[in-house]
From TrEMBL:
Listed name of the protein: Guanine deaminase
One Pfam family of this chain: Amidohydro_1
Keyword tags: Hydrolase
Domain Amidohydrolase-related, first and last residues per copy: 55-437
Positions of transmembrane segments: none
Organism, scientific name: Actinoalloteichus caeruleus DSM 43889
InterPro entries: Amidohydro-rel, Metal-dep_hydrolase_composite, Metal_Hydrolase, MTA/SAH_deaminase
Domain of life: Bacteria
Amino acid sequence: MGTLIRHASVITMDEVTGARPITTSIRISDDRISEIGPDLEPRPDERVIDGRDRLVTPGLVNGHLHSWEALFKGRYDNLPLELWMLFSYPILGIGELPADLVRLRTLLVAMESLRAGVTCVVDDVLETPTQNVDQLAAVFDAYELAGIRANVSGHVINKPFVDTLPFVEEVLRPDLLDEVRAITPPRTDEYLDFSRRAFERHHERAGGRLRYMVAPSGPQRCTDDLLVGAAELARAWNAEYHIHVLETKVQAVTGREFHGTTLVEHLRRIGALGRETTLAHGIWLTRSDIEILGAANASVSHNPISNLKLGSGIAPFRDLLDAGVNLALGSDGASSSDSPRMLDVVKAAGLLHKVSEPDHHRWPSVAEVLRAGTLGGARSALVEDRTGSLEVGKQADLVIYDLNTLPFTPRNDLAVHLVYSENGSSIEQVMVAGETVVENGRLTRVDEDAVLAELRHWLPRVREWQEEWESVNAAFVPAFTEIHRRCAATPTGVNRWSGDEEAWLVG
C-alpha cells in the first residue's frame, strides 16, 4: 500500500526550491517517492495523510556520530579533547564490551536520533581495545531493528596511543610509556582483512539502508600503509572513508611534528584523499588545506556543539563552502555533545559563525545550514542518490512536523522556524524508506521501555567499570595537560617548523 501526503508545506532541499517552502503533495510507492505535485489525487489503495498545517522535510543526516559514547552521556565537562579521551576512550584497564551491551547502547542512540527527526547516521564505532566481529554485528543488528539508515565503521588506531601525540617522550613517565607500548595494536593486514569481511557481510544490508565504511582514526594515529590501504578499499566498495583530521590545535602541531607538513597535505601526498573522504571536524586548517580539500571534492563534517564543549575551536564554515568543499553536520559523540539531536546542531551551526565572522554577508544562511544537515550529510556518506532531499526516485526519508505548535507560532518563514525555533517537539511522524518508524513520539519497531529496562540492568556494572577506568587512566592527566599547554602556546601565525606565515584558519 502506498502513501499520499496531500497539500502540505514542503521543504524539498532539491536544486530547484532548496529550503524555500512550497505547498504540494508527495506520493510514496513502496520505499520511494514516486510523484511530487500540487494536484495529486488519492488512489483506492493509498493511505492518505492530510498535509494541511503540516511541514514535510527530508530527514536530518548526522554526518559524524560515536554511539560508543552513549554510556558516557552526561559524565564529563570542562576537559579538552586529549584529556577527555583518557576517560571516554580509556588507554589502559578496559576489556571488550559484551555484544549485548553494544546492541543496547546502539539502540539507545537510534531511538533518540529517530525521535528527533534524524533518519540517517554516520556512526564511527570505536571499540576499546579493538573491535571484534560480534560487536560490529551488534551495531548493524540494532540499526536494522530500529529502522534507521546508517553508515557504520570499523574504527581503527594502529599505533600505540602515546605515539600519536607530540612531546610525549619529554613529559610522560617512562613506566606508563612502556605499559602502553606493550599493548599490541591491530596490524594493517588485520584491519584490512576485517574490513573486507565486514563489507561482504554487512555492506548494503536491509535493502541498502545499512552500509559499512572504513574509518582510520586519524593520520597521526595510523600508519601510512593502513591509511592508503583503507582508501583503496573504500574506493573499491564505493564506501565512505571517514577520518578525524585537525580537530584540535594539538593535532595541528602533531602534523608538523610528525610529517613536517599539515595532515591534509600528508593525506594528499600519500593518495588517501578523494571524493569518498569525509574529514571529521576540519578546524585547524590552512588556506592551502582548504584548497586541497576543494580540489579533491572531499567533505568535512562540522560538529559545532562538540567542538564548543571540548574547546576545540571553530571550523572555517564560509571558507570551506567558498572552496567547493561539501559540508555535512554532525553531533559527534553522545558524551562530547551529550545528545545526538541534530536540530540542536543545525541551530548551533547557524548561530556560531555569526560571532566568528565580522562580515554579516558571510554568515551562514538558513538554506546553507539546512543543506549541510540534510543533502550535505548524504553526500558525505555517499548516499545522496538515495536520501537527503525530497525528489522523485529517492527513498522516502522524511519528517512531518505539526505546525499548530508553539515553535511554529506565529507562522512566518518555516525554514527559519525549523532552524531556530523547533526542538523536535513538533515532530508527528518520521519515515525511513517509506516506512513510518516514529508516530506520535513513539518508535514503531522498537519496544523502548523494554530496551531501557534491559539497559538499566547493565548500568551498575557499567558504573563500576567506568570508575575503574577513570582511576587507572588518571595517571596520564599531568602529562596530557602539559602536552595540551605546549600546543596551545604554539603561535598560530608564523610557525616554528618552516617559517610559513600562513595562519591556521579557525572560525
